């Protein structure tokens, strides 16, 4: 079967563009674009056949390219740039569910992907398209708070395409900074915040020979929507009741919503989960809009937060995220610094290792469960967006008591002990009493 996709203006003027065009906004009205698929053609294959096809590819293809027909159907297979992205585990936690007093909770560990974050899912799609049109492209560029730059630089390096990274100076972790450096990206450390970097990269990429890799480029969203497909597939083609997503630039919220909506259109699922966007209260323009019935976006100056990857006051994908939340009867919740810091540590004690952005989602989940907005009967999926090792300094400072928001009862440090058996036994017995 022949499938087709295109860019279409999100603002409603319905202008279409080819996916191989270097374009990010509608030339008619200036609105953002989104990728649209020929759903009628996709529906010519039955829901049962789609499920069988996707299941047959498990373990053989990346989590993104196993869904190629609903992502980038017309891409030449030889141009795919993949680093084994996706197929991240969906991990149930009986202890966490019991702690919250709810039926089931899972954490979708997107940080197990190649560069340690969910950004790989979108970047494989974007860089693969650049690989197909590379005769017109001399470099790929992005503004980043860390994870986008890591993904972009890795996939560009794999394809042999130069990359340029704009990072806010002293606002990303060392682990995040070293990734684009190691992948030989032109790494610019700029004395501004993410929103300032975003303004600069948009000017630089007006030269169409430098391709923009931020989420205002809707090819990124197409890869990230496969998170929704993976969740449903991992749950035996069933749907959770809630999906909780950290929100900064809001591309992932809109991507996950898009994935669920497309699955419903194709008959793969019969109902939608309620999507929850979790924001830090120091960078919460969507939360403020939600409290006013999804009023217009009023950008804020993002305050300093431990959740640096979502420290964004003027999110590009605001309108798309609002549409996804409205379509799923969604919720927006916020978390304070103390709530996100201690939620990370609290859930780490249940066997996980959470980055601070995921801490925001966990804190929001805890608040909504305790207020019974998330009912006791619910099945919940929390999206973990990055690997905790990218934020080892944050973890270390927590347990050393160097973060002012620390709950001391959650700290745990190595215990110095003499090399004597009796001393070792005394410490063990003091921590774990014999029955």
Note the total helix count.
16
Output the CATH class name of the domain at 90-116 and 221-410.
Alpha Beta
Structural class, by secondary structure, is alpha/beta
Q: Roughly how much helix do the residues carry, as a percent range?
A: 25-40%
What would the CATH topology of the domain at 90-116 and 221-410 be?
Rossmann fold
> Which of globular, elongated, flat, extended, rod-shaped describes the shape?
globular
Mean pLDDT: 95
- DSSP, total strands: 13
CATH architecture of the domain at 90-116 and 221-410: 3-Layer(aba) Sandwich
Task: Give the biggest beta sheet.
Answer: 6 strands, mixed
Spatial ordering of strands, largest sheet: 4-5-13-10-11-12
Radius of gyration: 22 Å
Residue fraction in strands: 5-15%
Ranges where pLDDT stays below 50 over 5 or more residues in a row are: none
Termini separation: 66 Å
List SSEs in N-to-C order.
EEEHHEHEHEHEHEHEHHEHEHHEHHEHH
Question: What does this 3D model show about the protein?
Answer:
There is one protein chain. The protein has 435 residues and is α/β, with parallel strands linked by helices. It has a domain at 90-116 and 221-410: Rossmann fold, CATH 3.40.50. It is built from 16 helices and 13 strands. Strands 4-5-13-10-11-12 form a six-stranded mixed β-sheet, with helices on both faces. Helix 10 links the parallel strand 10 and strand 11. Helix 13 (337-348) crosses helix 14.
């Amino acid at each position: 079967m022949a499938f087709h996709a295109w860019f279409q203006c999100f603002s409603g003027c319905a202008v279409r563009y080819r996916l191989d065009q270097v374009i990010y906004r509608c030339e008619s009205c200036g609105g953002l674009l989104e990728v649209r698929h020929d759903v009628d053609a996709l529906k010519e294959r039955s829901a049962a056949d789609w499920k069988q096809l996707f299941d047959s590819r498990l373990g053989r293809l990346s989590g993104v390219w196993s869904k190629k027909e609903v992502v980038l159907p017309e891409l030449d297979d030889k141009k795919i740039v993949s680093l084994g992205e996706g197929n991240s585990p969906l991990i149930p936690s009986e202890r966490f569910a019991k702690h919250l007093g709810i039926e089931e909770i899972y954490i979708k560990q997107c940080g197990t992907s190649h560069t340690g974050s969910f950004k790989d899912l979108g970047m494989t799609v974007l860089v693969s398209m650049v690989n197909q049109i590379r005769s017109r492209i001399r470099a790929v560029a992005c503004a980043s708070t860390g994870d986008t730059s890591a993904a972009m630089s890795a996939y560009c390096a794999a394809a042999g395409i130069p990359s340029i990274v704009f990072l806010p100076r002293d606002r990303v972790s060392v682990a995040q900074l070293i990734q684009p450096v190691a992948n030989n990206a032109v790494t610019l450390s700029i004395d501004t915040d993410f929103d300032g970097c975003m303004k600069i990269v948009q000017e630089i990429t007006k030269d169409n020979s430098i391709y923009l890799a931020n989420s205002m480029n809707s090819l990124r969203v197409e890869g990230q929507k496969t998170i929704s497909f993976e969740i449903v597939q991992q749950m035996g083609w069933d749907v959770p009741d809630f999906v909780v997503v950290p929100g900064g630039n809001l591309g992932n919220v809109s991507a996950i919503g898009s994935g669920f909506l497309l699955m419903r259109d194709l008959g793969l699922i019969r109902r939608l989960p309620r999507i929850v966007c979790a924001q830090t209260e120091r960078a919460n323009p969507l939360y403020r809009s939600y409290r006013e019935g999804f009023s217009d976006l009023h950008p804020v100056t993002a305050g300093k937060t431990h959740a640096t990857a979502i420290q964004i006051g003027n999110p590009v994908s605001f309108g798309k995220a609002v549409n996804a939340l409205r379509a799923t009867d969604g919720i927006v919740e916020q978390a304070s610094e103390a709530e996100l810091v201690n939620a990370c540590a609290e859930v780490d004690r249940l066997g996980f290792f959470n980055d601070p952005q995921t801490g925001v989602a966990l804190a929001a989940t805890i608040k909504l469960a305790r207020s019974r907005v998330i009912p006791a009967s619910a099945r919940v999926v929390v999206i973990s967006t990055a690997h905790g090792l990218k934020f080892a300094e944050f973890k270390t400072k927590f347990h050393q008591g160097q973060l002012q928001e620390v709950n001391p009862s959650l700290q745990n440090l190595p215990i110095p002990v003499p090399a004597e058996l009796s001393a070792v036994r005394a410490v063990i017995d003091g921590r774990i009493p014999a029955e």
